[in-house]
Every structure is written in structure tokens, then in C-alpha cells.
UniProtKB/TrEMBL annotation:
SUPFAM superfamilies: Plexin repeat, Sema domain. Keywords: Disulfide bond, Glycoprotein, Membrane, Signal, Transmembrane, Transmembrane helix. One of its GO terms (molecular function) is chemorepellent activity. This is Semaphorin-4A-like. Residues 688-702, 761-777 have a biased composition (Polar residues). The chain crosses the membrane at residues 720-742.
């Protein structure tokens, strides 16, 4: 069957595997709930290489055209201690411009190797305008002295963005990089060899490595071997398209080469494939990163684990996986069978006998044996992952970096926590269990794609340092205070957090003598949170009639579903529940009453918010209520009322009254709930009302205070009395006014004010007439004139 057809059939048979669950909590960049510490001065860029000192108080950074020494002794600040400029000269930059396509990006000096060479000095190697340079740095004075032996091109790549790996031990430097301008000549080498041994490298054979991308390296001290992890083109498979293969290669630390054959060349070099594949699935064949996790304290070195991030060359989306490999399994593969390369046909065939292949100490081996070493360096079997399957599979995230640590919980059990950096800029915290994994949280570290990325973990400080093109970011590995209740703390299943029963807060269980509730395996809230009830604040919301009401409710986690319950039997079309979890409706006599938002998470139900919506009374009625309530007993006085704006209308004041009560959602009686509105979405999808529970109807609304209704009725009665009194006064004034005018007209006919005989005289019989004007009227009264 043709290889291309075989690949097509494999694609057609692809079955989706179990994938990583959604994150419980999501924190965007610069979130107040999950603060990060950033170090990004304007003159610092491409902080590509990070190295933490042994006492974890200093972070050494290899950046663009500079080396930095950062003080990280305090977890709340990153301070620049020293900075050394290390940039190419103008002539070197001008020469570089003719070699590359983008001189601005390719011609600076990007430090790719930064390792401790001894107790007082660091070794650094950088691209240096496509002409690698290396130097030694004194850690105390942080002064730089360039090495100048002309071999820096063998220790770090020419391109600033070509990946390589390096590791030091006992003053010796082991590197895996490309040694030419085009990056076409890969090389694994030992430099600064001790005890009179010569430096060694690989034989210049095109078949040893096929366009590799070096990823990581690790030291096996017990067997004095080094392991290099990389991806390359697999020539043992005869496909039309080049097939990428994830590899691990070994060399012996003390290898000095052969006497005549393979002089100053590795005689112990061998390589094996790394298998990261789910059953009945295409393999994840491209290696992105590897982290070495030492064995637990007191365990054998063979228990060392290598956590690798893999992607697939056939995946059309951002799919990735994490596989773990045990050191003992790698040892077994290199001690097993090998394949032999036919140099005429360039095909591989199984070798019948193994003899010396993959062994150390071949400096005195015969030429025939070393000839076999030249042709038989590929193992017949691949290294299978722990549990024979990926530990984590993410169908929608492309992971690029991984860091792991072991965490011991209060019951003494240990869990592995993975920190995975995505290409999109989020850091995923994943906890591994015997039966699966949980994505505890995702934290946004950057927003724009980064050309360079690196991560270093300080377990002692509980801080993860992430280096990107923009700078260095310090991320606390846990922030337990974001879980405000016992149930949220337990359901998080974070081994670095536990619920303190005495202080009633979620905190890091650093003290083994503390009374900490923690259940990472099963998240049994009922058992761990007994007696840890929380106080719920009931918000009484006063709104105008026909006002748009919005009652907010926030999910305690992305996996929770929200349910709104009402203590009335109401049609669901009166309510809208948008994607943000709130409840919206128009205020009417039918919708006034009590509402409660409940979250269901991991099978546990708890009240998140509680409201009592009431109709707002007029200010005049409030004054009457206040005066009537002044004579009440202070012990039974209503809670203080505060005016706020409603969510639906910012122009109308809303009155809210707060009550506190305790609730235990697991044992609460639901018999009074009449109507419910549920959002079953996990995430940010929009769902409307979906459920409704009916029960016996009642004339009064549960949760309403009958006394407050009586007060509202009394206030309208007072207004009616006032209006009636005003109308009575007005009517009396009209009657008196009409009577007065009638008397005046009658008196003019009988006793005219002006005598017909003398117009200047006034009738003496006229007495004083009182004024009908208000007391404020100052016009004079009419008097008899003599």
C-alpha cells in the first residue's frame, strides 16, 4: 500500500480522544484577582534565557544585547541589580545586514546559552550578529570577559531564533546546536574537557542527525550519561512527505573517542524515538519542550520523569499533548535491540546481536566494533510513555513550554502539578490524578505572539518566572484567596490550597499542624466543609413600577451552572437570563418578590446571591414612615436603607436593604420554590430560561415583610387626608369670598360711600371692614372718615 494512501487511511480512522477539561477559573492579563509581577524596562527586550541561582535570590537573564542580574529575593518586587551591555560592533552589524533578510531582528546579539561553569562564573554564548561569541561572567561583580577562542560557533547557533540546548557539569560544557550559517550542520559536543581529555563531537555523517530541532538536555549522573531531546526527519520511514519524529539521544559523559576509528568522536552516541500517541490515533510526533522532574526524596534516580510537550504535523488546529517518560524506560530501550543502516540503499534493518552498542568505555574497542557503532546507532524500539498514553490532550491549545513540580498535601500524598504555556499567551495550571487531570486555572501572561519564551520555577518561593520578548513576568504558583468559600476551595482540587477551619479562609497549607480541609482526589465538599456555612447577604432592591431590573450573579467557576429561583409561580417569558448569568425583567406587581441565584458545581449546590425586589415608595411617604417608626423599639428597628442606582435605569434611584442569614444549600428545603430559571452553560454562552417548578400558590409573597406593606398603605392614607383638607379649605374660601362680595353690593345700594351733597364726604355710618387677605397682606383697612 502506498505510504500516502496509508496516511490518508490513518486520518480517516482518527477518533477524538478524551481531552483536557475546561479551566475552572480564567484570569485575564492584569486581573486584580490574580496579580502578576512584570519586569519590562523599555531598553530590555528578548529575555530569552533564564537561570536561577542556587539560593533562588538572583535571576540571571540573557537578553538582546545585554545580560541582566535581577534581585528576586522578595516575591513582590523584581529589582535590577546589574546590567552588562553585550552588543555587536557597528562593523559586525553592517556585515550582518548583507547576510539576513531582517537585520533589525536577526543582527542583535541574542543570548541562547547561559549556564554556571563553576561556583564563581557563568558561561554565556550569543548569536552576535550571526557570528556567535561567548564569554564568562563573574557572578559577584557581574563583569563580562569574552572567551575569544574562536569556537563559539560550535556552542550556540548563528540565528538568534534557532533553538539549541546546553548543560554543564564539573566545569565541562555539553551542547547540541547547529554550527554553520545556514543551520544545516547539527552537532552534539563536549567543551572545556577536564583531566586531560580531548573535546569530542559527532562524526560528520549526514545519517546521524536529519535536520534536528534541539529542545532540551538532561544529566544521568548515576550512569554518567547525558540525554538530548529533539525532533528530526525520520529516514527509517519511507514516506513521500517527510515524517517528523521526536527523539532522545544519549552520549557518555566521559567518552573520549576511539584510538584509530572515531578519534575525538562519540563512540557512545545512540538515538531512540519518543512515542506520544493515544490508542487508535495518529501520534503527536513533534517535540516542543521537555522538563526533567527529579525523583521524590529517597527514591532511586531511575524514577526521574521527563515531561514533554508534543504537537502533530498532521493537525490542522492548535492541538497538543503532554507525555511523561521514565528514565528507567529510556535506559531499557538503549540497552535493547538496534537497527543497522545499509549505506548503499539507505535502509534500516534489525541487527541480530547488540554486543557493545549503546555502552560506555569503548575507547579501546576494535576498529570492527567501532565500525558497527557507526552503522548501528538507532534503537529497534521506541520509548513508550507512562501509562502508554498521553497524560494531557488539548484539542484547542498549542502548548509550547512545560514546567512540573511535586506537591505534598496534608495527608502526605504527592501530586504532580504542570504549568503549561500556550502559544496564545495563557499559562495553564494542571493537576494530575490517578484517574485523570484537572485544569485548575488559566492565567493570561501576554497578548501578542512571542518569538522567544522560557520558564523557570522556584519551588522554594512558589513563583514561576516566564521570559518572553517583552520582559520577565513572575507568576505566583497559587493564589488561594480567590476561593471565598469552603466549597470553592475544595472543588478547586488544588494541592497548593486548603481550607482553614479555624480562620475560615482558603490558604496554602504550609503548617502541617493547622486544621486544613483538603480533598484533592474526590473533592468531597459535604465531608470537608461540615460546619463551615457562610453568611449570605440578602439585598432588598427598591425599584419604580415598569422599571428594567437587572439582578447580577457571578459564577464561582467556569464549570458551574447557575439557577435562578423565584418564590412565585410566574411565566418564564417575563424573564431574560443573558450569558453573564444575570436575571432581567420589568418591575411589576407580579415580579416583586424574592429571587435567589444558586450555583451547581461538581454536584454541590450553594447560594451565590439573594435579592428581594420591592416597589419604591415616594419620598413624602418615606418621611411619614420614618416618623411613625421613630417610636418603635430600637431592637426591632428595620435595617438602614441606602439609595443606589438600579442596574436597568441609571437615572432612577433604587433603594437596597441588606439582610444577613446563613444557609446550607445541601439541606435546604426547596418546597417553597415556585419558578426557576437555569443556565446550564459552562463558559460564556448565552442561555435563556430553561426550567420551571410549580407548587401551591399563595396570596402573599414569601420573603416579603407584611409590616412594610402596612406602612405603605398608611402613607397613601395620609396623602388622601391632606388632599381632602386642602380641598375643604379651598371650598370654604370660595363660599366666604362669594358672601363678602354679596354684602358689598347690597351695602352700596342702601348706604352709598359718597354723599350726593358733598362728594368729598363719606357716610358716617360705615364701620371698619375686615380684610380677607392672608396675614402676610399689608394693605390698610377701611375706616370711617370724619
Amino acid at each position: 500500500m502506498a505510504p500516502s494512501l496509508l496516511l490518508l487511511l490513518l486520518l480517516l480512522l482518527l477518533i477524538s480522544s478524551s481531552s483536557l477539561p475546561a479551566p475552572r477559573r480564567t484570569f485575564l492579563l492584569n486581573s486584580a484577582d490574580r496579580p502578576l509581577l512584570h519586569f519590562s524596562p523599555p531598553d530590555v527586550h528578548n529575555t530569552s534565557t533564564l537561570l536561577l541561582s542556587e539560593d533562588t535570590s538572583t535571576l540571571y537573564v540573557g537578553a538582546g544585547d545585554a545580560l541582566l542580574s535581577l534581585d528576586v529575593s522578595q516575591t513582590d518586587v523584581i529589582r535590577l541589580k546589574k546590567k552588562v551591555e553585550w552588543r555587536p560592533s557597528d562593523s559586525q552589524i553592517n556585515e550582518c545586514k548583507y547576510k539576513v533578510r531582517n537585520p533589525t531582528v536577526d543582527c542583535p546579539n541574542l543570548v541562547s546559552v547561559l549556564q554556571p561553569i563553576n561556583s564563581t562564573h557563568l558561561y554565556a554564548c550569543g548569536s552576535h550578529a550571526f557570528s556567535p561569541h561567548d564569554a564568562f561572567i563573574h557572578t559577584e561583580s557581574f563583569s563580562l570577559v569574552e572567551h575569544g577562542d574562536g569556537k563559539a560557533r560550535l556552542r550556540c547557533p548563528h540565528s538568534p531564533f534557532r533553538r539549541s540546548t546546553a548543560i554543564t557539569h564539573d566545569g565541562e560544557l555539553f551542547t547540541a546546536t547547529t554550527t554553520d550559517f545556514k543551520g544545516a550542520k547539527p552537532q552534539i559536543s563536549r567543551h572545556f574537557s577536564k583531566d586531560g581529555r580531548p573535546d569530542v563531537c559527532q562524526e560528520s555523517s549526514a545519517s546521524l542527525l536529519q535536520d534536528p530541532e534541539f529542545i532540551s538536555s538532561s544529566l544521568d549522573l548515576s550512569e554518567r550519561k547525558l540525554y538530548f531531546f529533539f525532533s528530526e526527519v525520520g529516514k527509517e520511514f519511507r514516506f513521500i512527505d517527510e515524517l517528523q519524529i521526536a527523539r532522545v539521544a544519549q552520549v557518555c559523559k566521559d567518552d573520549v573517542g576511539g584510538l584509530r576509528t572515531l578519534q575525538k568522536k562519540w563512540t557512545s552516541f545512540a538515538k531512540a524515538s519518543l512515542i506520544c500517541q493515544s490508542p487508535k490515533q495518529l501520534p503527536f510526533n513533534v517535540l516542543q519542550d521537555v522538563f526533567t522532574l527529579p525523583p521524590p526524596e529517597g527514591k532511586n534516580a531511575s524514577e526521574t520523569l521527563f515531561y514533554g510537550v508534543f504537537t502533530s504535523q498532521w493537525s490542522s488546529g492548535p492541538e497538543s499533548a503532554v507525555c511523561a517518560f521514565k528514565l528507567q524506560d529510556i535506559r531499557d530501550v538503549f540497552s535493547g535491540s538496534y537497527l543497522t543502516l545499509n549505506t548503499q540503499t539507505m535502509t534500516w534493518a534489525p541487527r541480530q546481536e547488540r554486543r557493545i552498542l549503546g555502552q560506555c568505555g569503548l575507547e579501546t574497542a576494535s576498529d570492527q566494533d567501532l565500525g558497527d557503532v557507526r552503522k548501528s546507532f538507532l534503537t529497534g524500539e521506541g520509548v513508550k510513555p507512562v501509562k502508554n498514553t498521553p497524560l494531557v490532550v488539548s484539542p484547542d491549545q498549542r502548548y509550547s513550554r512545560v514546567v512540573a513540580e511535586r506537591v505534598k498535601v496534608v495527608n502526605g500524598k504527592e501530586y504532580t502539578v504542570l504549568f503549561l504555556l500556550t502559544e496564545s499567551g495563557f499559562l495553564h495550571k494542571v493537576v494530575l490524578f490517578d484517574g485523570g487531570e484537572q485544569l485548575v486555572e488559566e492565567i493570561q501572561i501576554f497578548t501578542e505572539p512571542q518569538l522567544v519564551k522560557s520558564m523557570v520555577l522556584s519551588s522554594a518561593k512558589g513563583v514561576l518566572y516566564v521570559g518572553t520578548s517583552e520582559g520577565v513576568t513572575a507568576v505566583p504558583v497559587a493564589r488561594c484567596s480567590i476561593y471565598s468559600t469552603c466549597s470553592q476551595c475544595i472543588l478547586a482540587r488544588d494541592p497548593q490550597c486548603g481550607w482553614s477551619r479555624s480562620s475560615r479562609v482558603c490558604k496554602s497549607p504550609t503548617d502541617p499542624h493547622q486544621d486544613i480541609a483538603q480533598d484533592v482526589d474526590h473533592a468531597n465538599v459535604s465531608d470537608e466543609c461540615q460546619g463551615q456555612t457562610r453568611t449570605i447577604t440578602v439585598k432588598e432592591v427598591f425599584v419604580e413600577l415598569n422599571e428594567a431590573v437587572r439582578l447580577s450573579c457571578q459564577k464561582p467557576s467556569n464549570l458551574a451552572s447557575l439557577t435562578w429561583t423565584s418564590f412565585k409561580d410566574l411565566p418564564q417569558n417575563l424573564f431574560i437570563q443573558p450569558a453573564d448569568g444575570s436575571l432581567r425583567f420589568l418591575a411589576s406587581p407580579h415580579t416583586f418578590g424574592a429571587y435567589r441565584c444558586e450555583a451547581v458545581d461538581g454536584g454541590y449546590r450553594e447560594v451565590v446571591a439573594s435579592y428581594d425586589v420591592r416597589q419604591m415608595v415616594s419620598p413624602r411617604s418615606l418621611n411619614v414612615i420614618k416618623s411613625d417608626c421613630q417610636d418603635q423599639d430600637p431592637l426591632t428597628e428595620d435595617p438602614t436603607k441606602t439609595m443606589t442606582r438600579p442596574s436597568g435605569d441609571p437615572e432612577t434611584p433604587t433603594m437596597m436593604v441588606h439582610h444577613d442569614f446563613k444557609t446550607d444549600s445541601d439541606h435546604e428545603d426547596k418546597s417553597t420554590v415556585q419558578t426557576s430559571f437555569t443556565d446550564h452553560g459552562s463558559g460564556f454562552t448565552d442561555h435563556g430560561p430553561s426550567s420551571r417548578n410549580r407548587g401551591s400558590s399563595a396570596n402573599t409573597t414569601p420573603g416579603r415583610d407584611p409590616q412594610s406593606d402596612a406602612l405603605i398603605v398608611k402613607s397613601y392614607h395620609s396623602e388622601l387626608v391632606v388632599v381632602s383638607l386642602l380641598m375643604t379649605v379651598f371650598f370654604c374660601a370660595l363660599v366666604l369670598g362669594g358672601l363678602h362680595m354679596w354684602r358689598q353690593s347690597k351695602s352700596r345700594k342702601m348706604n352709598p360711600l359718597v354723599s350726593p351733597d358733598d362728594g368729598s364726604k363719606t357716610n358716617q355710618s360705615m364701620e371698619s371692614v375686615p380684610s380677607l387677605s392672608s396675614p402676610e397682606d399689608t394693605s390698610p383697612e377701611l375706616k370711617v372718615v370724619q
